[in-house]
Every structure is written in C-alpha cells, then in structure tokens.
Amino acid sequence: MSDYNPVDLFSDTAQGSIANVDGVKAKNINDLIKMREATDKSYKIRRLIQSWAIQQTQERQLRKLYAQCFIGFLAVQLLFMIVAFFLMGFQVIVVSDMQFNTFFISAFGEIVSLVLIVTKYLFSKSDDVKILETLKDM
Fold first, then answer.
1. pLDDT tens digits along 28-44
2. pLDDT digits over 99-133, tens only?
3. Helix axes 29-89, 128-137, angle to 10 degrees
4. Are 128 and 48 in contact (CB under 8 A)?
5. Where are the alpha helices (DSSP H) in 90-127?
6. Can you tell me the distance from the alpha carbon of 68 to that of 78, in angstroms, rounded to the nearest whole number?
C-alpha cells in the first residue's frame, strides 16, 4: 500500500500554496463558498415563492368556483321565495299567516347564514404572514 493521505493533499490548499484549482485561486475559495451559499439561498427563495404563487392561484380558482356555486344556489332560492310569495299573495297556495311568516323568516335566515359562511371561509385571511416569516428566517 502507498502512504497516500487525503488530508495532506488539502493541507497545501489551506496554506495557499496551490495556485489554481478549476480556475479559482486558493485565496478566493472563501469567496466562492460565499457565492455558492448565496446562490443556494436564492434558489430556495425562488422555489418557495414559485410554490406559493401556484398555491395562491389554485386557491383563488377554487374559491371562485365555490363562490359561483353559492351565488347560484342563493339566486335559485331567492327566485323560489319570490315565486312562493306571489303564489301565496294571489292565494294559489293557501297558508296561514304564521306559516307564511315562518317560511320567509327561515329562508331569510338561511340566506344570511350562507352569506356569512361564504365571507368567513372563502375570503378569510390567507397564509401570507407565514410565507413572509419563512422568507425572513432564510
């Protein structure tokens, strides 16, 4: 066996006696390390921002779909209430005053609760704060 020791190979580098390694001088190795660390950090930040942008776009599309479905449901329900109101007014459908009031109060309550649910969950505060904290920690 030979007396090859890999530590001896780099001991000269630490002392600066190797003039040129892959176009980088020994005294510039620390600068190269700093540049690579900055490049790696930049890549991580770009990937994080790209992922966040894709997630925001997908969430926006999903919220748009849900909002359209809820608005469609509310429009159908409102149309049903208007038709029922006129049918009761022209006495095509005969109900007592108590049933009439209960029907409209409950339907109005349902519409208001759906609007509150839509505004609370579809337009809630997003996770922008979390992404900013993650970027700050990097």
1. 777 777 778 878 888 88
2. 989 988 998 898 888 888 877 877 766 666 677 67
3. 180
4. no
5. 97-117
6. 15
Q: Please name the residue that has the structure tokens 């790696």.
A: 40
Domain boundaries defined on the chain: 6-137
Q: Which two tokens stand for residue 24?
A: 């980088």
Q: What is residue 93's DSSP assignment? A: S
Residue 98 has what pLDDT?
A: 93
Kindly report the backbone phi and psi dihedral angles of residue 16, in degrees, each rounded to the nearest multiple of 5, phi listed first. Answer: 85, 20
Q: Which two tokens stand for residue 79?
A: 């149309």
**At 10, is the pLDDT very low, low, confident or very high (cuts 50, 70, 90)?**
very low
Point out which residues pair with 21 in neighbouring strands.
24
Q: What is the rounded CA–CA span in Å between residue 70 and residue 91? A: 31
Q: From CA 66, how far away is CA 75, in angstroms rounded?
A: 14
Which of 12, 37, 8 is closest to 26 using CA atoms? 12
Whether this prediction's pTM lies above 0.70 is answered by no
Task: Retrieve residue 133's tokens.
Answer: 């904290």
Which position has the token pair 């540049």? 35
3-state DSSP call for residue 42? helix
